[in-house]
Specification:
- By secondary structure, the protein is mostly helical.
- The chain is rod-shaped.
Length: 315
Amino acid sequence: MNMTFSRAMTFAVICALAMPQLAASAVAQTLPQQTPSAPMAQPAPVQSPAALPQTAAPAAPLDAAVTSAEREAKSLKAAAAAELKELSPWTMFKSADVVVKAVMIGLAFASLVTWTIFIAKMVELAVVQRKVRSALAKIAETRSLAEAQFALGSKGSVLASFLAAAMREARLSAGISSDAGIKERAASSFAEIVRAESRRVRLGMGLLATIGATSPFVGLFGTVWGIMNSFIGISKSQTTNLAVVAPGIAEALLATAIGLVAAIPAVIIYNHFSRVTKGYLELVNRASGAAGRLLSRDLDRTHVSGGQRSRGAAE
């Protein structure tokens, strides 16, 4: 029994020592056989567009539609860019709406009227001021209405009108001993002449005031109308691209610009002529005073001569 147990133990020890070697040899035999059987995965070859399967053919119409839409957008952008490059006041005027064109033409005409009045009034006021100053210088040393008329000659001026009115009143009042009444009636005639001269010299200034006050609002009306049409065009084209919207808005804003071009000079010229006209009317009042003084001298001289004749007759 002991003999059998010792043999079993010896066999178990031998088996335990031999197992690692058998396992190593088995693993060495297994690895060379598995390496060729597990090759590395190769990347799939990239197929060219021509080699794609025919099943992608139904997407071609959609691609064609997208391509045509892109081409149309590009052509629209190119046209808009070309139009922006050629954008000028004349081009904007030609492309504007009929109402906006009418507003622009009216404002341009108003600006032309403003500068015409400016040139005409400058010449007129310069001439009449020179005439009045020259006439006042000529009658500065005269002693009677007749002498003053002779000194002025045939040159027409407002002072000649004052002298004629004074002599007419003196002639019509012959035989009336009230000098105060004669002077009062002559002053009334002088006032009428001053008012008529004031109306004459202010001719055209009311038009300047109207142009200066209304031109910005007329231009604003054209701008509002043009922008309204631009928004209608935006809704029709269904795009908010600035290249498409900008020309219409620029055409509308041109009307406001022309309105300001017409209004600003009109206001400045009106204020200038108001000052110049006031200076001229002061000269007219000086001429009225000079004619009144000559009339007063003639009346006093008449009374002195009449008194001397009365004393001579009494003697």
